[in-house]
Write a structure and sequence with these properties.
By secondary structure, this protein is α/β, with parallel strands linked by helices. The chain folds into three domains: 76 residues, no CATH class; 119 residues, Aspartate Aminotransferase, domain 1 (Alpha-Beta Complex); 251 residues, Aspartate Aminotransferase, domain 2 (3-Layer(aba) Sandwich). The protein has 20 helices and 15 strands. Strand 8, helix 13 and strand 9 form a beta-alpha-beta unit. Helix 4 packs across helix 6. The relative contact order is 0.13. The model has no long low-confidence stretch (mean pLDDT 91).
Length: 471
Amino acid sequence: MGTRAPSAFRLLPSVEQALGREDVRAHAGAVSRELLVRFVQERLELLRAQIGAGELDEEGTREALVGLGAAVTARVTAERKSGVLPAINATGVVLHTGLGRAPVHPEVARAMAAAAGGYCILEVDRLTGRRNQRDARLSELLRRLTGAEAAIAVNNNAAAVLLALNTFASGRETIVSRGELVEIGGSFRMPSVMERAGTRLVEVGTTNRTRAGDFRAAVGEETGLLLKVHTSNFKLVGFTEEVAAPDLALLGAALGVRSVYDVGSGRIEPEGARPLGLSADPLIGDAVASGIDVVLFSGDKLLGAPQAGLVVGKRDAVAEMRANPLYRALRLDKVALAGLERTVALYLEGRADEIPSRAMLLAEPGRVREDAEAIARALEARDGLAARVEAGASQPGSGSAPGVLLDTRVVRVRHRKLSAEELAARLRAGEPPVFARIHEDELVLDPRALLPGDRERLLAAFAALGSVPPS
């Protein structure tokens, strides 16, 4: 290495000098001055540290300074592309947690936008002018849809579980089958949630077999709750046995102990709608009819609504949960309530199959094949790309219907110069970002989860590949 630190340090410009460079000044309108100053400072501090460590001499410092503008450009670009932004889901995973799970119906989106953009009727009765409950309308709609006596909603199903445990078993014991002590995405473990809710876990049965007698034998003076959990993202096979919801409900009623069923994904099959065929997930109506005190499920999974944890069940049990001070901390805002109300109304109006995620799960094989073939033809016509259609499998996603795969047609794509990983990275960096799968060094596009207009946007993303810088 050549001349070292002192002379190399002198080559570094001041922040103001760097801001005056044309390649840095070009970003003046893209971000605030404060943020641009921070990006420049970060780059100069990095160069200063590298000089101090002996990693850069004069020559290396000059070369690094040539790239100052490019480094700032990369930071500005990353800043503008971060956060919650629209994306194209070409993975075939319908309820993709990383991509926001269920896209809502256009009417639902409009209802949410209207609530967000102005004042709305939330906690006041329009006829009397008196204060009322913010989720009164949603509660009524959920009662009609599920057959439950009462309903409330919180911000997600984890919150619903926390609220139920804290309401019925804080300072007491909750009995649950060992085979249902699940962990779902984000290291959400049922025993950890129980601890936070202030209840003590009592495990009964074995991993693969639990009977009603196991629950009965464990009930004592400290028992506050009998809990059943649908395993959602895994499936036990072989010699298995679990306590059915009606049996747990009867046992709880006989012993004077509350019963709760965390169903998870929330499958509802309204009359006149095409059945989803996801038999691995319990029906909410069946869970309610079982006699269980409270049933919990997600709004943004199979229901196809905005994120929420929905609580339906017996009137007195739901009233206890509503009266818990924790409910206020977990309740929904006006935007989510507006979206949920309109989603449930669509079910009650006989329009369930219009819900986007439901339509994707029910997509006819012919429609998926036509999309795949059209995409393959368009990509094959582009220089440097090879594309072909093959049979494949889509997934419901987000732990719904574990083990269930949906027949689909996928487009397998190769790029003459880019690896599958590089091609996928370029597509994610584009506008809008495209997410796809990779298999055997090929990019795999599944059109099942494409929304109206996404096919054209997907092809435009491929057309713009040359203008997308390497990640």
